[in-house]
Amino acid sequence: MKLHEHTKEALRVMKPADFDNIANRFPQTDMAWHGHCATRFAGPFVGNYMDRIDVDPIVIGHSAPKCGYTQRQFYEIPELGAHCVAFCNELYDLLPVTHWFYSNVWLDSLGAPLEVTDKLPYIIPDGVPNNRPADKPENVDKLEVPDVDEIENTLSGQLYIRAWDYCKEKIPHMFVPIHFGFCVYSMSAEMAEPNNFLMWAYTQPEMCHKLLQTITDTSINAAIMIANRYGFAMMTPGGVLSNTTVLKPNMVKELAVDYHRQLVRKSFRGGAGPQLWYHLCGDHSMDYELWKEVMISPFTVIHIGYDGKNVFPAKKLIDTFGNMMTVMASCDTILLNDGPPKAVYDQCKPQIEGLLGAPRGFIIGAACEVPTFAPPSSILAMVRAARDFGKLD
Amino acid sequence: MVDIPGDVKKVLEERGVDPKDITAVVEGAESSGDKLVSGDKSMAKKQCGDVVCYAIYAGNKVVSGWSHKLHEQDIKHVVEEETQEWTCNKCGGVTVRGNMDLEYLGVTRLAPVVVCPKCMNGYIEEDIAAKTLVVAAMLLEKKAG
Predict the structure, then answer these.
(1) What is the ipTM of this complex?
(2) Which residues on chain B are in Cβ contact (under 8 Å) with A300?
(3) Is pLDDT of B80 > 80?
(4) Is the pLDDT of residue B144 over 70?
(5) Please, are residues B137 and B69 in contact by the beta-carbon 8 Å criterion?
(6) What are the extents of the domains in chain A?
(7) Is A235 in contact with A267 (CB distance < 8 Å)?
(8) Do the chains contact at B110 and A300, CB–CB below 8 Å?
(9) % of chain B beyond a pLDDT of 70
């Protein structure tokens, strides 16, 4: 495994946070709330609904400033970040679990440097020599897939282990180890540089496939690493750049859906799963039906952000996927950022009402991660809409 | 005479699978021809009481066995192009990836299977049964209280 000098330095100075010091910054979870919420959360998967539809606006970095911390602290101190999410989920009455993740995950194990900025999670920084390990086709052949043991000692591996070890010890009732597989197309594009990669898709498709396979195999080993350590690993594959805006539908299939199926099947074989959450960012108006061909477990959620410029309609989700998996419809993230709360509430109403007929469960969420500085009133408006229009008892 | 080696018996015991059921799976498949084949290996299944038992065997020797207690229902979806190593013994068709409905305690959910697209007969692989479906059954039982 060849790590970038940036990564080696980051690993050299990395010190896991003092668990007690972090945990003592937050009140203990209200276990009465947690018990109620856990039953509600299980509802979509076991067909036993209570009080109202679940709301998951995908709180990640948003939680840090709400708890008095910065984005940089959120990502550099995963123990703190995970607890911020857990605490905000309780405050907002969302899900009884925590999560902590970023999209360029595992790329460091293939030689890419990753850096946190004041405003963004781990990115490949510009201006750093050799920052795109697959910038040229000939370099794709030089990439080495790290094995399961090696990947534990990468920057991404260590960050995730810190987050999940902390949750397991300090907030075990909120603990779900997640393998963030994410969008294999986007991750490949980051390794090559997005414009390069898109061009290869047309001019040198064999290079695209070679890089996609490397990314997929790396992600599989990461999933197995997490499953080995924690006994299971919820998987979150996604379609971020593999969407209608960037690719023709047949390319979404060839460059994303087919690899995700392989990613999940091989990861399951290695002990990952059984939960699956397919998170499809952006516009999927032309390719959404292709995602019926992904791997499906009994605990699978599909979430699609947009249909053209509009949020993906709940009814279309149910018509396409309702008999196959739990469906997650969305509220526009821009609206969550800009408000006002009444507009959020009004947009959630038809989405929630549309979801209630889904035969295998439903959740209302945001089209993507709730923006960092979105006002709390937006999330509270979603929850209020869930109470008013998503009653289940 | 079906041969179940000691190491396989140990795994069966850990999984709570009765070796007699595995013998019944093999004998039933050899009698009916309802099985998948790959090289010298066969994969077969049989409803044994409340569980569906599966076996992989070569000749008369059992290689592995597993079971699950969810009720197998219809195949919901197949991915025709994702061919699998197994061939349907009945029709000779190459199997593909698919999804099968499973019902348990009133709840129906999909699980991935290897399926003959002609016969629409689905088989649940070992890891899916031993892990994914065990968790699924456990959660549904918890809900049933």
Answers:
(1) 0.93
(2) 110
(3) yes
(4) no
(5) yes
(6) 5-389
(7) yes
(8) yes
(9) 99
